[in-house]
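Extended Data, panel c. Modelled sequence:
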Amino acid sequence: MEKEFSKFPVCLEPWIFLGLGWNQFNMCCRGGYGYDFGEIISYSNNSDFHKDIWNHENFIKLRNNLINGELPSICINCSLKRTWGIRNYFFRYLPLIKDENQKNRALENYNRTIDSIINKQTYIESKPIYLHIICGSNCNIKCKFCYNRNMNYNPNAKDLLNIIDKFHETLIFVTLSGGEPLITQAGRSLLKKFDEGIYKFGVCLQTNGQYFDFDLLKSVNLLSVVISTDAATKRTYENVRIGANFENLIKNIKLFIDLKKNEKPTLDILSNYTITSDNYIEIPEAVKLYQDLGLSFGFNLVQRDIDCPQNIIERKDLYDSFLFKINEGIENAYNFNTKNSLNTIKNILLNKINDEQEQQKFKEKKRKFIFFWKNI
């Protein structure tokens, strides 16, 4: 099967993934809500899922373009191209589905998806393997760097559930994000479906760690929790994540760890650290702190405009000290995922520095050329 996948030279997300957010459908986990795949509110009730949504004319067009090697702009610099995702869903997440009927249905759908990919079908009969839901922009804190902070999106939970109900029996897992999904109407309504015995798929929860609801989560087939940490000290944490409380974060991390020990032994608990100009200096200390608590790390950069002051990758004045702190963090990392994530950030920074140096060389050559011709 790996040999077959190696013949397929493009990203597989439009064959396996469906995103629901900002009242739109989406085709990849890295964004792409600017593409027109239809509006959620228009298809939530009386629609044929395969015809109207999953095989929307623009989904078919996108799949065909990818087969022909025509990558959309959002795909060009993506680090998750090709087959990593679909292998991960099969080997990591499918075995963790507790309900055997759900697992068998998901496996059958997975195999049909593989056939669609290998045969390069653009109209596909299988259903999505993985779903990502933006549950709303409501949040209990206001982070300086958050691209959602000035947005207003509060979806009707019924509209989202109507879509999910069309194929929930074959899903492997769903990621919930926000805002803060644990306080949104849509997020809470979805999670309650587990207590009612309706939903059986796996769940990845992305949370800021300021709120913990055991009663809501105890029946959920929770596969992973990604907690935004973003600092190693109270002062920096509460400066970056306005309205949050550092002691509350540590307390709730420990509650999730207790949940893993006592109720959900297969639960992965991860730390997500968005590096900004305000918190990069604490990378080495954060690696120590959260690793010692039992968390592995994922680091990422600010997803805001280049003129956002928190966007450290655009801060030339901080490049040297940023690189120094990354290297310190790598030295402190004993978890493979943590070390690998920091190395990825390091490579992005080094490429950025190299690009800046090449631009400076070009400008200097241009300046000398103009000076030369002016003085002939």
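Strands lie at 17-21, 24-26, 130-134, 142-143, 173-177, 202-207, 222-228, 241-242, 268-275, 296-301. This feature is highlighted in the accompanying rendering.
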